[in-house]
Amino acid sequence: MDRDAKRLKQLELLGSLGAGVLGAGIALLFSRWLQPYFLAALIIGIAAHGWAMFAKGRLERQAHTTQPRWAIAAEWACWLMILALILYVITDVLA
Which UniProt keywords apply (predicted)? Predict the structure, then answer.
């Protein structure tokens, strides 16, 4: 992977992280009004983000692009956090 492609991947990750933090800030700002919709928001967010990660990974594998190790580790960490969130919601929130 050349230097520009690595930089682009880093900026994509930073942009996604920034969007997530911005979304969390907005949710905290309007938490009183958004609380009744938390489960729907979680389900939609997990489905959209999970599908995007899955489809992006599939396209990258089909194109035979090599990913830096940090990008692979970040993707696996994200899948583990999604799994942990799902387990938390099932065991703590819905129980």
Answer: Membrane, Transmembrane, Transmembrane helix
H-helix or E-strand containing 85?
Answer: helix 69-88
Domain boundaries, the chain: 3-93
Report how far residue 84's alpha carbon sits from residue 89's, in angstroms, rounded to the nearest whole number: 9
Give the phi and the psi of residue 32 in degrees, each rounded to 5. Answer: -60, -40
Per-residue pLDDT of the chain (95 residues; tens, 9 = 90+): 688 888 888 898 899 999 999 999 999 999 999 999 999 999 999 999 999 989 988 988 898 888 889 889 989 999 999 999 999 988 988 77
pTM as predicted: 0.76
d(CA 88, CA 74): 21
